[in-house]
Design goal:
Blueprint lengths: L1 E6 L2 E4 L4 E9 L5 E8 L6 E6 L6 E3 L7 E6 L4 E6 L8 E9 L14 E2 L3 E6 L1
Parallel strand pairs: 2-11
Antiparallel strand pairs: 1-3, 3-8, 4-5, 4-9, 5-6, 7-8, 9-10, 9-11
Length: 126
C-alpha cells in the first residue's frame, strides 16, 4: 500500500509564495509519475503539474506556467510544488498523486492516477 502525505498549505496574500511538499511511503512502484491537482469549492478537480520519474521532464497547466515549479527528490521520496505570485484563483485544496510508469503522457487526467494524498488547503487572500 502506498501512502501520500501533503504539507505546506496555508493562508497567504496575493502575490506571495508557498511551497507544498508530498512524502510518499509504503510499497511504491519501481518507477512512477507524480503530480499535483487542485479542487476549489464547487469546481471539478483540476490538473496543476506533473513530473516524470527522473525529474527531468515536467508539464504544467497553462494557468500556472511561469509561476509554479514542480520537482522531486527520489532519495527523500518527496515531491515539491513551489508556488510564486499567487492569485486568489489559486485558492483550492491541493492533492498530490502517484501513477505507475515513467511517461508523462495522459498525466493531465486525474483518472489515470493510482494513489492520492488527503489534500492541503491553500487560501490566497486578495
Amino acid at each position: 500500500q502506498v501512502q501520500l502525505v501533503e504539507s505546506g498549505g496555508g493562508l497567504v496574500q496575493a502575490g506571495g509564495s508557498l511551497r507544498l511538499s508530498c512524502v510518499v511511503s509504503g510499497r511504491t512502484p519501481s518507477s512512477y509519475v507524480r503530480a499535483w491537482f487542485r479542487q476549489a469549492p464547487g469546481k471539478e478537480r483540476e490538473f496543476v503539474a506533473a513530473v516524470d520519474w527522473s525529474g527531468g521532464s515536467t508539464i504544467y497547466h497553462e494557468s500556472v506556467k511561469g509561476r509554479f515549479t514542480i520537482s522531486r527528490d527520489n532519495a527523500k521520496r518527496t515531491m515539491y510544488l513551489q508556488m510564486n505570485s499567487l492569485k486568489s484563483d489559486d485558492t483550492a485544496v491541493y492533492y498530490c498523486a502517484v501513477r505507475y510508469g515513467m511517461s508523462l503522457v495522459m498525466s493531465e487526467y486525474w483518472e489515470r492516477f493510482d494513489y492520492w494524498g488527503q489534500g492541503t488547503q491553500v487560501t490566497v487572500s486578495s
